[in-house]
Design brief:
Length: 91
């Protein structure tokens, strides 16, 4: 069943150029620093333990963000089996 398209009255306002540039800079900083963190972390931790910590941090972050963003985005809550399957098979 296709989702209805929002009309002009319900469509949210587009973000400003300044906000877009700020968020892009933040993403570049986060993704760019990942290499440095991994390089430093592998000197202290074994690779699988380091990956486990990264996945756990991502789990904590997304478990907070997902409910907040789902209210804004709408849609149905996925079945538990689908969530579990995606989580296990996309690593």
């Amino acid at each position: 069943m296709p989702l209805p398209l929002p009309n002009a009255a319900t469509r949210p306002e587009a973000p400003s150029d300044r906000l877009i540039h700020t968020l892009m800079a933040l993403l570049c900083l986060i993704w760019g620093s990942t290499y440095l963190v991994i390089r430093q972390g592998l000197g202290d931790l074994p690779p699988f333990k380091a990956a486990g910590y990264r996945f756990f941090c991502a789990f904590l972050m997304f478990s907070v963000l997902a409910p907040l963003l789902s209210k804004r985005e709408g849609g149905e809550t996925p079945r538990g089996g689908l969530v579990l399957g995606m989580g296990l098979l996309t690593t």
